[in-house]
Amino acid sequence: MRPCVYVLVLGALAAGPTACGDSTDPDADPLPDNAATAVGLTVRDNVEASIDAFYPARLLQPLSTGAAQDPCVTASSPADTDGDGVPDDASYTFTAPPCRFPDVRGFNLDVVGQLRVVDPAPETAGFGAVVDFTNFRFSLTADDPDRNYSVTRNGRVTLTGSTAGLELSTEMQILRTFSGLSDAAVEHVWTVGFEPETTLQINQPLPNGSVTIAGTINWSRGDETFELTLSTLTPLHYNAACAATGQRFDAGELAVSGTFGETPGTVHIGWGGCGEDPNIEFVAED
Protein backbone atom coordinates (compact mmCIF):
# COMPACT_ATOMS: atom_id res chain seq x y z
CA MET A 1 0.00 0.00 0.00
CA ARG A 2 1.21 3.52 -0.85
CA PRO A 3 1.93 5.48 2.36
CA CYS A 4 -0.18 8.53 3.18
CA VAL A 5 1.65 11.69 2.08
CA TYR A 6 0.61 15.08 3.39
CA VAL A 7 2.04 18.25 1.83
CA LEU A 8 2.27 21.07 4.34
CA VAL A 9 2.42 24.80 3.81
CA LEU A 10 5.03 26.65 5.89
CA GLY A 11 3.28 28.56 8.62
CA ALA A 12 -0.10 26.84 8.16
CA LEU A 13 -0.31 26.07 11.87
CA ALA A 14 -4.06 26.52 12.15
CA ALA A 15 -4.95 24.08 9.38
CA GLY A 16 -6.71 20.81 9.95
CA PRO A 17 -6.16 17.27 8.61
CA THR A 18 -7.12 16.13 5.16
CA ALA A 19 -7.82 12.74 3.68
CA CYS A 20 -5.06 10.21 3.08
CA GLY A 21 -3.40 10.70 -0.28
CA ASP A 22 -4.77 14.22 -0.87
CA SER A 23 -1.31 15.70 -1.40
CA THR A 24 -2.71 18.68 -3.33
CA ASP A 25 -4.28 20.29 -0.25
CA PRO A 26 -1.73 22.94 0.85
CA ASP A 27 -3.11 23.03 4.41
CA ALA A 28 -2.83 19.30 5.09
CA ASP A 29 -1.36 18.16 8.37
CA PRO A 30 -2.68 14.94 9.89
CA LEU A 31 -1.28 15.53 13.38
CA PRO A 32 -2.96 17.43 16.23
CA ASP A 33 -1.96 21.11 16.46
CA ASN A 34 -0.12 20.76 13.14
CA ALA A 35 2.81 19.06 14.82
CA ALA A 36 4.47 17.91 11.58
CA THR A 37 4.53 21.47 10.27
CA ALA A 38 5.82 22.77 13.60
CA VAL A 39 8.65 20.24 13.70
CA GLY A 40 9.59 21.03 10.09
CA LEU A 41 9.64 24.78 10.69
CA THR A 42 11.79 24.39 13.79
CA VAL A 43 14.30 22.18 11.98
CA ARG A 44 14.39 24.65 9.07
CA ASP A 45 15.29 27.52 11.42
CA ASN A 46 17.98 25.56 13.21
CA VAL A 47 19.57 24.37 9.97
CA GLU A 48 19.80 28.00 8.86
CA ALA A 49 21.39 28.96 12.18
CA SER A 50 23.90 26.14 11.83
CA ILE A 51 25.16 27.40 8.48
CA ASP A 52 26.01 30.74 10.12
CA ALA A 53 28.15 28.97 12.71
CA PHE A 54 30.45 27.57 9.98
CA TYR A 55 31.73 31.15 9.54
CA PRO A 56 31.58 32.67 13.07
CA ALA A 57 31.75 36.27 11.83
CA ARG A 58 28.36 35.64 10.22
CA LEU A 59 26.82 34.99 13.65
CA LEU A 60 27.00 38.75 14.16
CA GLN A 61 24.76 39.20 11.08
CA PRO A 62 22.27 36.36 11.65
CA LEU A 63 19.86 34.73 9.21
CA SER A 64 21.49 36.30 6.16
CA THR A 65 20.32 39.82 6.91
CA GLY A 66 21.79 41.09 3.63
CA ALA A 67 25.16 42.25 2.36
CA ALA A 68 28.08 42.42 4.76
CA GLN A 69 27.76 45.34 7.16
CA ASP A 70 29.22 46.52 10.42
CA PRO A 71 28.14 44.21 13.27
CA CYS A 72 25.54 45.57 15.68
CA VAL A 73 27.63 44.38 18.66
CA THR A 74 31.20 44.80 19.80
CA ALA A 75 33.48 42.19 21.32
CA SER A 76 34.31 42.28 25.01
CA SER A 77 37.92 41.70 23.91
CA PRO A 78 39.23 42.43 20.39
CA ALA A 79 42.20 40.04 20.65
CA ASP A 80 42.64 37.67 17.69
CA THR A 81 46.24 36.58 18.13
CA ASP A 82 46.45 34.37 15.03
CA GLY A 83 44.33 36.62 12.78
CA ASP A 84 41.97 33.85 11.68
CA GLY A 85 38.79 35.81 12.36
CA VAL A 86 37.93 33.85 15.53
CA PRO A 87 38.61 35.92 18.69
CA ASP A 88 40.80 34.44 21.38
CA ASP A 89 37.93 34.72 23.87
CA ALA A 90 35.18 37.29 23.35
CA SER A 91 31.62 37.81 24.51
CA TYR A 92 28.92 39.68 22.63
CA THR A 93 25.72 41.09 24.10
CA PHE A 94 22.93 41.71 21.59
CA THR A 95 20.17 44.26 22.17
CA ALA A 96 17.46 45.51 19.82
CA PRO A 97 18.04 48.17 18.72
CA PRO A 98 20.74 48.29 17.43
CA CYS A 99 20.41 44.59 16.53
CA ARG A 100 17.19 45.09 14.59
CA PHE A 101 17.00 44.01 10.95
CA PRO A 102 14.12 44.84 8.58
CA ASP A 103 12.81 42.62 5.78
CA VAL A 104 14.23 39.26 6.79
CA ARG A 105 12.05 36.62 5.05
CA GLY A 106 9.18 39.11 5.22
CA PHE A 107 9.69 39.81 8.93
CA ASN A 108 11.40 42.38 11.10
CA LEU A 109 14.08 40.58 13.14
CA ASP A 110 15.18 41.58 16.65
CA VAL A 111 18.19 39.79 18.15
CA VAL A 112 18.92 39.78 21.88
CA GLY A 113 21.06 37.62 24.17
CA GLN A 114 24.67 36.61 24.44
CA LEU A 115 27.31 34.75 22.48
CA ARG A 116 30.75 33.75 23.68
CA VAL A 117 33.23 32.82 20.93
CA VAL A 118 36.52 31.12 21.84
CA ASP A 119 39.43 30.10 19.61
CA PRO A 120 40.61 26.69 20.88
CA ALA A 121 44.11 27.30 19.37
CA PRO A 122 44.54 31.09 19.61
CA GLU A 123 48.14 31.11 18.39
CA THR A 124 47.58 28.91 15.30
CA ALA A 125 45.36 30.13 12.48
CA GLY A 126 42.66 27.64 11.59
CA PHE A 127 38.95 26.97 11.39
CA GLY A 128 38.26 25.93 14.98
CA ALA A 129 35.82 27.72 17.28
CA VAL A 130 33.66 27.07 20.32
CA VAL A 131 30.49 29.15 20.53
CA ASP A 132 28.25 29.29 23.60
CA PHE A 133 24.68 30.62 23.24
CA THR A 134 22.95 32.14 26.29
CA ASN A 135 19.31 33.19 25.90
CA PHE A 136 20.10 34.07 22.28
CA ARG A 137 16.71 35.00 20.88
CA PHE A 138 15.41 35.83 17.42
CA SER A 139 12.04 37.61 17.53
CA LEU A 140 10.35 37.83 14.12
CA THR A 141 7.38 40.14 13.66
CA ALA A 142 5.18 40.78 10.63
CA ASP A 143 2.27 42.99 9.68
CA ASP A 144 0.01 40.05 10.48
CA PRO A 145 0.60 39.31 14.19
CA ASP A 146 -0.57 35.72 13.71
CA ARG A 147 2.72 35.10 11.85
CA ASN A 148 4.93 36.35 14.69
CA TYR A 149 7.24 33.92 16.45
CA SER A 150 10.50 33.72 18.38
CA VAL A 151 13.35 31.22 18.73
CA THR A 152 15.55 31.21 21.85
CA ARG A 153 18.75 29.14 21.93
CA ASN A 154 20.94 27.96 24.78
CA GLY A 155 23.85 25.59 24.23
CA ARG A 156 27.15 25.09 22.48
CA VAL A 157 28.47 24.46 18.99
CA THR A 158 32.02 23.29 18.36
CA LEU A 159 33.55 23.94 14.95
CA THR A 160 36.47 21.90 13.58
CA GLY A 161 37.89 21.47 10.12
CA SER A 162 40.47 22.25 7.49
CA THR A 163 40.61 23.71 3.99
CA ALA A 164 38.96 20.47 2.78
CA GLY A 165 35.81 20.66 4.94
CA LEU A 166 34.15 21.63 8.21
CA GLU A 167 32.16 19.92 10.95
CA LEU A 168 29.89 21.29 13.67
CA SER A 169 29.05 19.37 16.81
CA THR A 170 25.89 20.93 18.21
CA GLU A 171 24.13 20.52 21.54
CA MET A 172 21.30 23.02 21.78
CA GLN A 173 18.16 23.67 23.81
CA ILE A 174 15.57 25.68 21.90
CA LEU A 175 12.33 27.40 22.87
CA ARG A 176 10.16 28.06 19.80
CA THR A 177 6.86 29.94 20.02
CA PHE A 178 3.78 29.37 17.86
CA SER A 179 0.89 31.80 17.52
CA GLY A 180 -2.18 30.44 19.30
CA LEU A 181 -0.40 27.25 20.44
CA SER A 182 1.90 26.19 23.27
CA ASP A 183 5.61 26.89 23.06
CA ALA A 184 7.86 24.00 22.04
CA ALA A 185 10.89 23.01 24.10
CA VAL A 186 13.32 21.27 21.77
CA GLU A 187 16.69 19.65 22.41
CA HIS A 188 18.85 18.74 19.47
CA VAL A 189 22.18 16.95 19.34
CA TRP A 190 23.43 17.21 15.77
CA THR A 191 26.55 16.71 13.70
CA VAL A 192 26.63 19.03 10.69
CA GLY A 193 29.21 18.58 7.92
CA PHE A 194 30.18 20.99 5.14
CA GLU A 195 32.01 19.84 2.00
CA PRO A 196 33.13 22.83 -0.11
CA GLU A 197 33.21 22.86 -3.90
CA THR A 198 36.41 24.92 -3.78
CA THR A 199 39.19 25.05 -1.21
CA LEU A 200 38.21 26.86 1.98
CA GLN A 201 40.16 29.95 2.97
CA ILE A 202 40.70 31.08 6.56
CA ASN A 203 38.58 34.07 7.60
CA GLN A 204 36.62 34.10 4.34
CA PRO A 205 32.90 33.43 3.74
CA LEU A 206 31.83 29.96 2.69
CA PRO A 207 31.95 29.01 -0.99
CA ASN A 208 29.33 26.77 -2.56
CA GLY A 209 29.18 23.35 -0.98
CA SER A 210 27.07 20.51 0.41
CA VAL A 211 25.74 20.11 3.93
CA THR A 212 24.85 16.84 5.67
CA ILE A 213 23.17 16.60 9.07
CA ALA A 214 22.53 13.70 11.44
CA GLY A 215 21.36 13.58 15.02
CA THR A 216 18.46 13.49 17.43
CA ILE A 217 15.59 15.80 18.33
CA ASN A 218 13.67 15.65 21.60
CA TRP A 219 10.43 17.63 21.23
CA SER A 220 8.02 18.72 23.97
CA ARG A 221 4.98 20.97 23.44
CA GLY A 222 1.86 20.79 25.55
CA ASP A 223 0.90 17.11 25.60
CA GLU A 224 3.36 16.26 22.80
CA THR A 225 6.56 14.38 23.60
CA PHE A 226 8.48 13.08 20.58
CA GLU A 227 11.88 11.41 20.34
CA LEU A 228 12.95 11.88 16.73
CA THR A 229 15.91 11.11 14.48
CA LEU A 230 17.22 13.56 11.89
CA SER A 231 19.00 12.30 8.77
CA THR A 232 20.04 13.58 5.35
CA LEU A 233 18.32 11.99 2.38
CA THR A 234 20.01 14.26 -0.19
CA PRO A 235 22.83 16.64 0.85
CA LEU A 236 21.70 20.24 1.07
CA HIS A 237 23.36 22.45 -1.53
CA TYR A 238 24.58 25.73 -0.08
CA ASN A 239 24.63 28.43 -2.76
CA ALA A 240 26.84 31.38 -1.82
CA ALA A 241 25.00 33.54 -4.36
CA CYS A 242 21.92 33.22 -2.13
CA ALA A 243 23.69 34.83 0.84
CA ALA A 244 21.49 37.94 0.81
CA THR A 245 18.25 35.93 0.83
CA GLY A 246 16.38 34.26 3.64
CA GLN A 247 17.19 30.82 2.21
CA ARG A 248 20.67 29.81 1.10
CA PHE A 249 19.98 26.22 0.03
CA ASP A 250 18.76 25.54 -3.50
CA ALA A 251 18.49 21.74 -3.26
CA GLY A 252 18.50 18.87 -0.77
CA GLU A 253 16.24 16.98 1.61
CA LEU A 254 16.23 16.11 5.30
CA ALA A 255 14.09 13.53 7.10
CA VAL A 256 12.81 13.65 10.69
CA SER A 257 11.56 10.22 11.71
CA GLY A 258 9.85 8.77 14.76
CA THR A 259 6.47 8.34 16.40
CA PHE A 260 4.45 11.54 16.54
CA GLY A 261 2.06 10.79 19.39
CA GLU A 262 0.33 7.68 18.08
CA THR A 263 1.37 8.17 14.45
CA PRO A 264 4.71 6.76 13.23
CA GLY A 265 6.11 8.48 10.19
CA THR A 266 8.61 10.93 8.73
CA VAL A 267 8.63 14.67 8.15
CA HIS A 268 10.45 15.42 4.88
CA ILE A 269 11.96 18.90 4.48
CA GLY A 270 13.03 19.63 0.90
CA TRP A 271 14.71 22.72 -0.52
CA GLY A 272 14.22 23.59 -4.18
CA GLY A 273 15.38 27.10 -4.99
CA CYS A 274 17.50 30.04 -3.87
CA GLY A 275 15.47 32.30 -1.59
CA GLU A 276 12.56 29.86 -1.37
CA ASP A 277 11.24 28.25 1.80
CA PRO A 278 11.51 24.45 1.80
CA ASN A 279 8.53 22.18 1.27
CA ILE A 280 7.44 20.08 4.22
CA GLU A 281 5.76 16.69 3.74
CA PHE A 282 4.57 14.21 6.31
CA VAL A 283 4.67 10.55 5.28
CA ALA A 284 2.79 8.27 7.68
CA GLU A 285 3.90 4.67 7.95
CA ASP A 286 1.48 1.97 6.86
Provide an overview of this structure:
The longest helix has 19 residues, at 35-53. The chain is globular. Strand 5 and strand 6 (149-162) form a beta hairpin. The model is unreliable at 9-26 (pLDDT under 50). 7% of the residues lie in helices and 49% in strands. The chain is mainly beta and 286 residues long. It has one helix at 35-53, and strands at residues 4-8, 89-94, 100-104, 107-118, 129-141, 149-162, 165-178, 181-196, 209-221, 224-238, 249-260, 263-271, 279-284. Strands 1, 2, 3, 4, 5, 6, 7, 8, 9, 10, 11, 12 and 13 form a 13-stranded antiparallel beta sheet that branches. It has one domain. The protein is built from 1 helix and 13 strands.
What order do the helices and strands come in, and which of them pair?
Layout: E1 4-8, H1 35-53, E2 89-94, E3 100-104, E4 107-118, E5 129-141, E6 149-162, E7 165-178, E8 181-196, E9 209-221, E10 224-238, E11 249-260, E12 263-271, E13 279-284
Antiparallel strand pairs: 1-13, 2-4, 3-4, 4-5, 5-6, 6-7, 7-8, 8-9, 9-10, 10-11, 11-12, 12-13
